[in-house]
Every structure is written in structure tokens, then in C-alpha cells.
Protein: NAD(P)H-dependent oxidoreductase
Amino acid sequence: MTKYGVIVGSIRKNSYSKGVAEAIAAGLPSDAEVTYINIANLPLYNQDLDAASPVEYTEFRETVAAQDAFIFVTPEHNRSIPAALKNALDVASRPWGQSVWGGKPALVASQSISGIAGVLAHHVLRQSLVFLDMPTMQQPELYIANTDKLADETGKITNADTAKFLAGAGKQFSEFAAKFVK
Structure:
């Protein structure tokens, strides 16, 4: 059984990113263990706290370390990833030399209510994952545009074709992740 951590870059209630993540996770094997990891309450990363990390840092790092693979879904904020997502990446990659991300396969999806589909945030996130030594699935590229027209008011993807496509990507990711999970 593979343990999949899901990190949603949007901390908004009824997030479209969460809806996309759920649609991807629907394609994972039935025995997959899926954990949605909350990043909303992490204090901002501060290197001064490395020697005596707050409990939120420690718990988050332990949760990340316990996962085999990750699904990241992000909106785009000012042509980049949301601050909460960047903070989460930083918290679990520190103290220096003690990153818990390394070697864990990742899938990246971005979404936007616009036609640009969060493409710049997608690539910013991929660049960070390269540095964090996370092998990232390359295809299919998951840029989901106009999510407000594909989801209901709770963020759940209701467009059948989109849901099918995202579940298919989840299935492909499980096959990709199996190459790396011991």
C-alpha cells in the first residue's frame, strides 16, 4: 500500500485546488492511503527556530516523512505559488541537510479560474521540487483552466470529462510513483 500525501496550495474554504486534488486522488488504487496535509496553520519558516522547532513544524515534518509520494495542486498567486505552499516546502526542507522531501515522487497540477490555468505557478513549483530532489511526473501536464466553470460552489469538480481526465492522471501517477516507492 502506497501512502500519498496531498498538499493543496490554496487554504481557501471551498478551494478549487482541493476539488482538483480530490479528482486526481479518485484515480489512485483502492488500497492507497491518502492523507490531505493541512498547511494553513504552519508558522512562517524562520531559521532561528531550527534548534527548537515549534510543534507545528515537527508534526508537519513527521507527516511529510511518513508519506511515499505527493500530489501538489496549486492556484497561482501573483504569477507564483501561494505563500502558504512555499512556506510548507521550506518548513519540511529544513534544518539544512534534514529535508524530508528527497526522493519522494511528485505530481504537480495547477488550476485557475482564468484561461492561463496557473501555468507560471506550476513551473515555479516544479523548480522547487527539482531542488528538493523529488522526481516529478512529466506527463500529462495538468494545467486546469476555468475551474469555476468545471466545479460547483464547494470546489468539487462536476465536469465529467475533467473528472475523468484527472482520475486518469491519478492512475498514471500511481504507476509512476511505483517506480520509486520501495
Notes: The chain has one domain: 3-178. The chain has a mean pLDDT of 97. The domain at 3-178 is CATH 3.40.50.360 (Rossmann fold).
